[in-house]
Amino acid sequence: MRSVLFSVVFLALSVCTGMAQTAPAPYTLGAGDRLDIRVVVWAEVARQYELWTAVSGSYAVQSDGYVLVPIAGPIDATGKTPAELSEDISAALEIRANLIETPATSVEISEHRPFYIIGDVNRPGVYPTTPGLTIGQAFAVAGGGSAEAASAEQGTMLREASALQQANVDIFRETVRAARLQAEVSGADDIAIPSDIGHPSGDGPTAQVVEEEAEVFRSRRAALNLEAETLDELKGILNNEIAGLEGTLDRLATQLELARTRFANIESLVESGRARATQLVDVQRDLFNLENKEIDLRNAMFRAQQRVKEAERDLVALRTKSSTQSAVELQKVNAELERLNNQRAFLREAIAEGGGTLSSADAAEIETTFFVTRADDPEGDEQTAATTDRLSPGDILRVSQVLVLDPDGS
């Protein structure tokens, strides 16, 4: 029963202290590692396992490879895994302290011994090694490559090549934008992308930039069409209103003609004494009402016709404003293209003077090479390495960056 309880307590302690860690390969200890050591013993009086505070704590692997643990004494840690070291500590404590049962010991690495990175990186220096650390990861930890770390001449060429590549990207983007604006100015249904251009990074980025501008083109076209449709609908409503007013006026004209005829007849009868004057007044009032109604209808029709003209003017102004705005933007884009082309020509010339050619300058690449000096190599020879190779504690990683003006060898 006690052995089961012992196992449970030891497992709980191991989990709490983070002893178990996932690593591509077992990590072996060496000088410079810092360890958190926890020891649990059986307390007979309390009838439970307790942390042995006298020996538990933080320890460093000394320069000679030993760990100095109270009571247990110096324990050799060199080349051992944390699990192996924990067994050695437990055995030593059992003997030195005359314990009835072997104590449970856990060893956790709180700080790994370092590796070193030098050369063309942003932040050369000393960094703690982690199990499974690759050269590519170490390169990233040090901030990646740095043109500033190269020689003055090489650094200048790196910056010029980087600026040239960015200029090519900007020229491509501005050219596609100019094609979109030209389509807006001319009222074309689609963007005519020049067939002889492309993103320096390949088909994927090319398609992405073209689609981005196409989406802007579609969105602006949709917004313009929506406003135009709204004005067309307003014109349709007003024209229907005018048509209705014209029909009403036609019918009113018939009523007016009859009213005027009746008024003339009653007036003749009143003059001859065959009708009363009051009859003439009633007929005249009806005629005035119809004439006033005719005036109101003609005014309403005039206002509707004016609003139709305003809608037509607004429609023309809308399309003119859109075209003018696109033309102004196109003028700015063309000016930017001129500036970028001049910048590209200058950079090409500068790179050519530095040893490249005008045909190869646009294809300039930065070639990064890694060199490793292994800590366990007694000769201390430097070897080339790949980004997927793993670094061990004490290794020295040197990064070299070189500008290749003609990477394809053409």
Structure description:
The protein is 55% helix and 16% strand. The strands form three sheets. A five-stranded mixed sheet has the order 8-7-11-9-10. Strand 1 and strand 2 (48-51) form a beta hairpin. The chain has seven helices and eleven strands.
State the main characteristics.
single chain; 410 residues; 5-stranded mixed beta sheet; 4-stranded antiparallel beta sheet; 11 strands; 55% helix; disordered N terminus
Q: What share of residues is helical?
A: 40-55%
Largest sheet: 5 strands, mixed
Task: Name the beta content range.
Answer: 15-25%
Spell out the helices and strands N to C: HEEEEEHEEEHHHHHEEE
Number of distinct helices: 7
Average pLDDT works out at 83
**What is the spatial order of strands in the main beta sheet?**
8-7-11-9-10
N-to-C CA distance = 78 Å
Output the structural class.
Answer: alpha+beta
- Number of strand segments: 11
The residue ranges in which pLDDT falls below 50 over 5 or more consecutive positions are 1-23, 357-361
Oligomer type: single chain
- What is the overall shape? elongated
Radius of gyration equals 46 Å
